[in-house]
Write a structure and sequence with these properties.
This protein is α+β, with helices and mostly antiparallel strands. The protein has 13 helices and 5 strands. InterPro entries: Cro/C1-type_HTH, Lambda_DNA-bd_dom_sf, MLTR_LBD.
Length: about 270
C-alpha cells in the first residue's frame, strides 16, 4: 500500500498528536486519575477508539512509512470528532480519498472573463490562486488594501499571507489582527494539505516561518478551519473604520481559485 511522502507523514503525525492532546478522556468515559501523565488521550486509548493496534497507531504518530486505509481514517476521524475541514485535512495528509466526500475535478486555466467580471463589481473584490496570490482585483480592492493591492505594495506577487505577516501596515489596518491572523493560517493549512510537496508552497511557508515569528507560532498550533465569510473590520488610514461582510466563492471546476468579495455592512443590511 502506497505511503504518503515524508513531509505529509510528519505533518500527519504532528496533527494527530495535537488533536489527541486536546481530547478530554472524561468525554469518552475514561478515567482522569492522578496517574495520567499526558494531557488528552494516550496513544493506546486513541488506538482502541479508532479500532487499530497501539503499535500501528504509534508508528503513524512517529511519521513512519506506514499507510492507513480510508476506512481506518474514517474511524479515526469519528473517534477524534473532527470537523469537516479537519477531516478533509486528515485525508489529504494521508494521501487518501475520503469515500464520503465528492472530489472536485482538475483545475482549469483561469478564465479571462474573471478579470472583467471583477472589474465590473463596485465593492472590493479579488481572486486568489492556490498559493493565495491575488491574480485579479478591482479598483475598490486596491483602494482598501493599502500595501497589498495598491501601487505601494512591496510584494510583486501580491501574496495575502506575506501581506498579513510581513507588511507592517496590515497590523495597523486589520482590526483584531491576532485573531484574524490565526484564522487565516488555519484556513490556509486546510486549503493546502494536499499540496505540501509543492516547491512553491513549501518555499512560501519556509520563508514566512523565517521572517515572521507570529506566523511560525501560529503554524505550529496545527489548527485547521474551513474558509468562511463573516464580518471584517479595517482601520483605514484615510477613511477611518470600515465594516464589511465578506463572502467567498470557489470558481466552478477550479477549487484552488477563490473569489472574495467585501460588501459594506450598510449595503448588506
Amino acid at each position: 500500500m502506497k505511503t504518503p511522502p515524508s513531509s505529509q507523514r510528519h505533518a500527519l503525525a504532528a496533527f494527530l498528536r495535537a488533536q489527541r492532546a486536546r481530547l478530554s478522556p472524561a468525554s469518552f468515559g475514561l478515567s482522569t486519575g492522578s496517574r495520567r501523565r499526558t494531557p488528552g488521550l494516550t496513544r493506546e486509548e486513541a488506538a482502541q477508539l479508532s479500532g487499530m493496534s497501539a503499535t500501528w497507531y504509534t508508528w503513524i504518530e512517529q511519521g513512519r512509512e506506514v499507510s492507513m486505509s480510508p476506512a481506518a481514517l474514517a474511524r479515526l476521524a469519528r473517534a477524534y470528532r473532527l470537523t469537516r475541514a479537519e477531516r478533509a485535512y486528515l485525508f489529504d495528509l494521508a494521501d487518501k480519498r475520503d469515500p464520503d466526500v465528492h472530489q472536485a475535478g482538475q483545475d482549469a486555466d483561469l478564465p479571462e472573463a474573471a478579470a472583467a467580471a471583477i472589474a465590473a463589481v463596485t465593492v472590493p473584490a479579488y481572486l486568489l490562486d492556490r498559493h493565495w496570490q491575488a491574480r485579479h482585483w478591482n479598483a475598490a480592492a486596491a483602494a482598501l488594501f493599502i500595501g497589498w493591492l495598491d501601487h505601494t505594495a512591496a510584494d510583486p506577487q501580491r501574496n495575502l499571507l506575506r501581506y498579513i505577516f510581513l507588511e507592517p501596515r496590515a497590523r495597523q489596518m486589520i482590526v483584531d489582527w491576532e485573531d484574524r491572523a490565526r484564522r487565516v493560517v488555519a484556513e490556509f493549512r486546510a486549503d493546502h494539505s494536499h499540496a505540501l510537496d509543492d516547491p512553491q508552497l513549501r518555499g512560501l511557508i519556509g520563508d514566512l516561518r523565517r521572517h515572521s515569528p507570529a506566523f511560525s507560532r501560529l503554524w505550529e498550533e496545527q489548527s485547521v478551519l474551513g474558509r468562511e465569510g463573516g464580518n471584517r473590520q479595517f482601520q483605514h488610514p484615510q477613511r477611518g473604520l470600515l465594516l464589511y461582510r465578506q463572502i467567498a466563492f470557489t470558481l466552478a471546476n477550479q477549487p484552488d481559485i477563490k473569489l472574495v468579495m467585501l460588501v459594506p455592512v450598510d449595503a448588506a443590511a
